[in-house]
Amino acid sequence: MDDWESKTVIGFRQSVAKVAKKDSDINAARRSGAVVATDKKMTSGGNKAHQGTDHQRIAKLDRENEVAPPAKIAPSVGRAMQTARLELKFSQKDVAQKVNEKPSVIQDYESSKAIPNPQILGKLERALGVKLRGSDIGKKL
Description:
mainly alpha
C-alpha cells in the first residue's frame, strides 16, 4: 500500500474502561461479550473509628512484633562513674571537657539513661581511672 492510499483517522477515541455501578449494567456487558472485572470496595461505610477485624488483627500483629528498646547502661556503672568523679573532685562539666563530650552525655551515663557506647566508656575509663566495662566495674585501673 502506498502512503497516498493509506487512511489516517484524526480524533478517533479508543474505548475507555467504564465503571458500572448497577448490576444490570454489568449483566448487559457480560451478555454482549465484553471483558468484565469486578472489584469489591473494601472500606465502604462512614464509620472510621470502627474498622473491620482485619485492621484490628494487623494492629495486634504490629504490637507483637515491636522491637525492644536498646539496653540502657547498668546503674552500677553510673554509680562507679559518680564516685570516681567525686574522689577526683571533678564536676560533670570537667569530665565532659576531658573526654570531649557534652555535659548532658555525662549526666545521662551517671543517671543510667544513656545507651552504652564503647568509645565513650573507654574515654571515661581513662579520664576517671576506673574500670567501667566487664566484670570488675568500679575497680581502679
